[in-house]
Design brief:
- This protein is mainly alpha-helical.
- It has three domains: about 30 residues, no CATH class; about 110 residues, de novo design (two linked rop proteins), CATH 1.20.1440.60; about 40 residues, no CATH class.
- It contains nine helices and two strands; from the N terminus they run αααααααββαα.
- The chain has a two-stranded antiparallel sheet with strand order 1-2.
- Strand 1 and strand 2 form a beta hairpin.
- The chain is elongated.
- The N and C termini lie far apart (about 55 Å).
- About 10% of the residues have low confidence.
- The structure holds zinc ion.
- Zinc ion (ZN) binds next to helix 9.
Length: about 200
């Protein structure tokens, strides 16, 4: 899987070890409790490596586009790719990823459309489209998984936000579960101080 690696030796080992222990099990399930079992560090390294590998495939392909398309379609794909790469990097660094993930989702969609367009116009040779598709689909799935996991943090099973029963502020599932257990009702941090704990 790792051709030309951007990771350090230690990170590579971590990716390999974690991969062999999660293949087919937790990787595709992203909702609820399962999401917490994700190895976050692994996910982050893996998606970065995926995007890097995609770039390695993409650059020579774009250089061989017909001359008149080099500055239009190829340029658009290059820019979208760079944007995706930067967004992934930023999303990995950020605690709340929601806005970045939405942006990523849009960029990934745009890239897929350009890729199909380039293929239908005959600018891609046979295995190129499949390989690039595989990369972008995988990246898209992981971003989708992150989005679902983020939603599971703030929405209950009916898709409604968790709210403080005193001041109506939106709270996360974790705070909801904690306050319900110890205070007998869903409360934000501020209101938890006003309501005594259950004995
Ligand atoms: Zn409150």
């Amino acid at each position: 899987m790792l051709k030309c690696s951007i990771l350090t030796k230690r990170e590579e080992r971590h990716v390999k070890e974690t991969r062999s222990s999660t293949v087919g099990r937790t990787r595709t399930r992203t909702i609820g409790v399962e999401a917490r079992h994700f190895d976050k560090a692994y996910e982050e390294l893996y998606i970065q490596q995926r995007v890097y590998d995609m770039g390695l495939e993409l650059w020579p392909v774009l250089a061989n586009f017909p001359r008149e398309q080099r500055f239009i379609l190829a340029q658009s794909m290059r820019e979208t790719y760079n944007h995706i790469r930067r967004l992934i990097f930023r999303a990995n660094k950020k605690y709340t990823k929601k806005d970045l993930l939405r942006e990523l989702d849009v960029e990934i969609g745009a890239f897929k459309t350009d890729l199909r367009w380039a293929n239908d116009l005959g600018y891609l040779k046979d295995p190129q489209f499949d390989r690039l598709s595989e990369h972008i689909v995988e990246v898209g799935k992981m971003v989708g998984g992150w989005l679902k996991a983020e939603k599971a943090e703030v929405l209950d099973e009916e898709g409604k936000e968790y709210k403080c029963s005193k001041c109506n502020a939106v709270i996360t599932k974790r705070i909801n579960d904690y306050s319900t257990k110890y205070h007998g009702q869903p409360l934000c941090y501020a209101c938890q101080k006003l309501v005594p704990k259950k004995k």
